[in-house]
Design brief:
468 residues, alpha/beta, Aminopeptidase, Aminopeptidase i, Domain 2, 9-stranded mixed beta sheet, 7-stranded antiparallel beta sheet, 12 helices, 23 strands, 24% strand, globular, binds manganese (II) ion
Amino acid sequence: MSEGTKGEELKKELFNIKKTGWNDVDEMQMADIQKFADEYMYFLNHGKTEREIIENSVEILEKNGFVNIENKERLEEGDRVFYINRGKSLYVAVVGKQAMENGLNIVGAHADSPRLDLKPNPLYEDGGFALLKTHYYGGIKKYQWTTIPLAIHGVIVKPDGEKIKVTIGENEEDPIFTITDLLPHLAQEQMEKKLSNGIEGEALNLLVGSIPYDGETAEAVKLNILKILNEKYGIKEIDFLSSELEIVPAFKARTLGFDRSMVAAYGQDDKICAYTSLRAILDVQHPEKTAICILADKEEIGSMGNTGMESHVFDYFVTELLNKKGENRVNLLEKVFCKSQMLSADVDAGFDPTYASVSEQNNAAFLGRGIGLNKYTGARGKSGASDANAEYVAKIRKLFEENNIKYQVSELGRVDLGGGGTIAYILANKGIDVIDCGIPVLSMHAPYEVTSKYDIYTAYRGYKAFLV
Ligand code: MN
Ligand code: MN
């Protein structure tokens, strides 16, 4: 190797040189990265909705010595507990050595993903077909949800409290469902429309059947479908009123690329951070400060409602920790929050060379460059941003640098183009130091999203370093 020029040496010293993490991965680390990605894909293939993710996460927690906080009278240092909020969001804690008034270390992700929900009165017949009306959930590009295999996941709750779980379209022997689109031959008018309304919300109708009930003339296909549903699930049409049925892509999570470097899957926003932060807290034993993992619901539609991060149920969980540790006193909760720090674990827009013009490359997150920090989110002039304080950014930098965790700091897209938000501001408003810290994704919110296995493993290591 030739001696570098003085300028080159100085560059190495002074420049923030950004490069892929893959070059530093040895054979053993590669095996760890691939194994972790396989486990992540297994997790994705067994849970596509927030309810399924919470249920599966609780199972994993219980296998790792965590117990429901409601079954604990008192809490001691080292105790491992969780609280399930209505089956849709989850708070996990490992009780630390220090008093909680010194603050908590929190990693918070969300378990809900963009999808199509069924309307309360979904089933109808038209043109010899039975169809289900949907209402999309979260920010989707509607045209992406047509002509792909779809599955139905969710619950139907009867007035007597009986809860019927539905998962159909995932097993090879299951039927799948789909939303049709117009043939190009007759799409001249549609193709002239803007992409945003080429497919209207009211056109996202799920095709579910076509055989009429024998001998009937009016609504015979609808009747036949209801008969099948009645035999299979014991439900009548009115039971849709108290159901939450979600339409999700029926694809499996798969390894992507000749080099097996990426994961393609539905719902990686934000199950990728949910999984990596859950795995991180499993590894936490006897932390200095109480370690917390949040899996929130409703992030994709603004975090409202009693399972969203805006609700006070998380405050209640922390209060219960204080009560059961025998530490609580008047107004202590506010102090705990003001002393706490958090990584808001949510995905970031990865740089896509095909759509390079939406990114400013010096400040874009790249797949394979490690965990992505967003100092701020918001849109157009940082509007609505949760902007992490420089002091806190420095603290997180130090943590990652000391633990050899590759990170990149970026913002979501070009200044005037748009933006987004996460749960970060909600926790920041309580007084917690928060920074967005997640994994870059391509095709975010599409039925099939792309991530780098290097970043997945790095995020897990990063969250763990933060919590232990
Ligand atoms: Mn997200
Ligand atoms: Mn999202």
